[in-house]
Write a structure and sequence with these properties.
The protein is α/β, with parallel strands linked by helices and about 350 residues long. It has a single domain, classed as TIM Barrel. Helices cover about 35% and strands about 10% of the residues. The protein has twelve helices and twelve strands. Helix 4 links the parallel strand 5 and strand 6. Helix 1 runs parallel beside helix 3 and helix 9 packs across helix 10. The longest helix is centred in the N-terminal third of the chain and has 13 residues. The radius of gyration is 19 Å and the shape is globular. The N and C termini lie far apart (about 40 Å). It binds NADP nicotinamide-adenine-dinucleotide phosphate (NAP). InterPro entries: AKR (IPR020471), Aldo/ket_reductase_CS (IPR018170), NAD(P)_OxRdtase_dom_sf (IPR036812), NADP_OxRdtase_dom (IPR023210). Keywords: NADP, Oxidoreductase. This is NADP-dependent oxidoreductase domain-containing protein. GO terms for molecular function: oxidoreductase activity. Belongs to the aldo/keto reductase family.
Length: about 350
């Protein structure tokens, strides 16, 4: 397993392959984590783990409140003697309903409590926009179902994130879904520089300029949805009644499959290798033991310069984006909405 050295004073290393957990049910998550830990994963990337109420509001029939389940799985792994806290890299995120300076510590402590951990390795601001919520962290909605926007100040939120590092509640801090301008604003105003930018990144959305900017600023890039999030459209549809037209199916791309065949690997392994060969961290989500093993078994081959060129040419720019976040009705009207909006 290769590690990426973060820019913190502590010289923290982040494993280049992690396990994504978005959409994993509590009942599924324990086996997924134990399988992953047994086959060498040391980076658990979490998604919306501190937003059970947000999840409930978006779909009251189903909550993926898997943070406690992750905590239980980690505890079981630690007490089995197979590993210690220091052997695993745990990331979580400040939700959009908590994106304001005065709420940072409260949400971080909630995560820590659920996870039964004393510190996180990485805490990210989930997105640059914010929603108003009630005292249960439930987002407030307008009469037409759109989210009540909160005009947050990301620099102030960042200052509060810095305080959490100083208090020892997280070892490093970073950003997610911020665009180049927003990232630069935080970078300029920060005492503790962002260690990581987590963004959607895969063969159809390569965001080369943003990745280059991060490299120049010594900020590690984590790719979410590195396989093109094959289950996302069904999920968007069933949970939010939202669908993306022309949802991309990167795993079936002809060139990806040809390269996979040549290396006797799967298309998923080729997509992940394409990213890690550029020093981008990947956090593929899987609850399937075979795919969990497959997704980390990518260190025994190398893509040639010609193959990299072919994969680079698959970039569709903004047309390849899946996560416009438009399932948060009205989010595109927020002044900090980071993407070039594409309405469905
Ligand atoms: N910061 C953010 O805003 C943000 C947004 C989205 C995601 N994320 C994070 O990034 C992680 C990964 O993104 P993602 O879950 O959207 O998408 P992804 O990792 O690209 O794809 C996950 C999907 O692919 C399937 N899969 C996994 N490995 C496979 C393989 N080798 N071959 C074929 N199919 C495979 C999984 O099904 P099985 O489980 O059945 O294997 C699952 O449906 C998330 O879990 C979350 O932690 C962050």
């Amino acid at each position: 397993m290769k590690n990426i050295l973060l820019n913190n004073a502590d010289k923290i290393e982040m494993p280049i392959v992690g396990l994504g957990t978005w959409g994993a049910e509590p009942a599924e998550i324990k086996n997924a984590i134990l399988t992953a830990m047994d086959c060498g994963y040391r980076h658990i990337g979490m998604y919306k783990l501190v937003t059970p109420c947000l999840t409930l509001i978006l779909d009251t029939a189903f909550s993926y409140n898997n943070e406690e389940a992750i905590g239980n799985a980690l505890k079981e792994w630690f007490t089995s003697g197979k590993g210690r806290r220091a052997d695993v890299f745990v990331t979580s995120k400040l939700p959009c309903v908590g994106n304001r300076a005065e709420d940072v510590e409260r949400f971080l402590k909630l995560s820590l409590e659920n996870l039964q951990l004393e510190y996180l390795d990485l805490y990210l601001i989930h997105a640059p926009f914010a929603f108003k919520c009630d005292s249960n962290f439930t987002p407030q909605l307008e009469g037409d179902g759109s989210f009540v926007l909160d005009m947050n100040d990301n620099v102030l939120t960042w200052k509060a994130m810095e305080e959490q590092v100083k208090k020892g509640l997280c070892r490093s801090i970073g950003l997610s879904n911020f665009n180049a301008k927003q990232l630069q604003n935080i970078y300029k105003a920060s005492e503790i520089k962002p260690a990581v930018l987590q963004i959607e990144l895969h063969a159809y959305l390569q965001q080369r300029e943003l990745v280059k900017l991060c490299q120049q600023l010594n900020i590690a890039v984590t790719a979410y949805s590195p396989l093109g999030s094959p289950g996302a459209n069904i999920y968007f549809n069933t949970k939010y009644n939202y669908s993306l037209s022309n949802f991309p199916d990167i795993l079936r791309n002809f060139e990806v499959n040809e390269i996979a065949h040549k290396h006797n690997k799967t298309p998923g392994q080729i997509l992940l290798k394409h990213l890690i060969q550029q020093d981008v961290v990947v956090i593929p989500k899987s609850i399937n033991p075979n795919r969990i093993k497959q997704n980390i078994n990518i260190f025994d081959f190398k893509l040639s310069a010609e193959e990299l060129k072919i994969l680079n040419s698959l970039d569709k720019g903004e047309n390849g984006r899946i996560f416009y976040c438009l399932f948060f009705k009205g989010v595109e009207k927020h002044p900090e909405y980071p993407f070039i909006c594409k309405l469905k």
